[in-house]
Amino acid sequence: MKLEHVAIYVQDLEKAKAFFMKYFNAQPNEKYHNPRTNLMTYFLTFSGGARLEIMTRPEIIESEKNIFRTGLIHLSMQVGGEEKVRELTERLRTDGYQVISEPRKTGDGYYESCVLDGEGNQIEIVA
Q1: Strand, coil or helix: what is 1?
Q2: Quick check: helix, strand or coil at residue 93?
Q3: What DSSP state is assigned to residue 120?
Q4: CB 85 within 8 A of CB 58
Q5: Which of 28, 73, 99, 115 is most buried (CB neighbours < 10 A)?
Q6: How far apart are CA 72 and CA 46, in angstroms?
């Protein structure tokens, strides 16, 4: 078995799509819109084949994104080396995104940093 995709609700669908395209080279499909429910989605495909579905609809509510809550905590994006982790982390910081953990070697052997996207979702950047 394999994980087929992960889906997240977002407030601003186009902004979320642009974020993943700009920083992680995501390739979107055509936007899906269900006129009955007003659900709108994109599937974003990454170079390794992983897919992320971003979705929005008028009735979604924003909830607090405490980093120590239960449930989905972060998306981990592999960028191909320690220097790339440092470079992308700095690029995101320069572009105004909050870096919540600096590039470092973790106890479980990863070289990573962590930033918040435009909606406060944690994006882990790994070598």
Answers
A1: coil
A2: helix
A3: S
A4: no
A5: 115
A6: 19
7: amino acid identity, one letter? A
d(CA 14, CA 16): 5
Q: From the centroid of its chain, how far is CA 125? A: 10
Q: With b meaning 16 or more CB within 10 Å and e meaning fewer, what string describes 15-46?
A: ebbebbeebbebeeeeeeeeeeeebbbbbbbe
The residue length of the chain stands at 127
Q: What is the pLDDT of residues 2-36, one digit of tens each?
A: 889 999 999 999 999 999 999 999 999 999 999 99
Torsion sign, CA atoms 61, 66, 67, 71: negative
Over residues 66-91, the pLDDT tens digits come to 888 888 889 999 999 999 999 999 99
Q: Which among 16, 64, 4 is positioned nearest to 40, based on CA atoms?
A: 16
Q: Could you give the count of Cα atoms lying within 13 Å of 11 in the half-sphere of its Cβ?
A: 8
Helix (H, G, I), strand (E, B) or coil at 62: coil
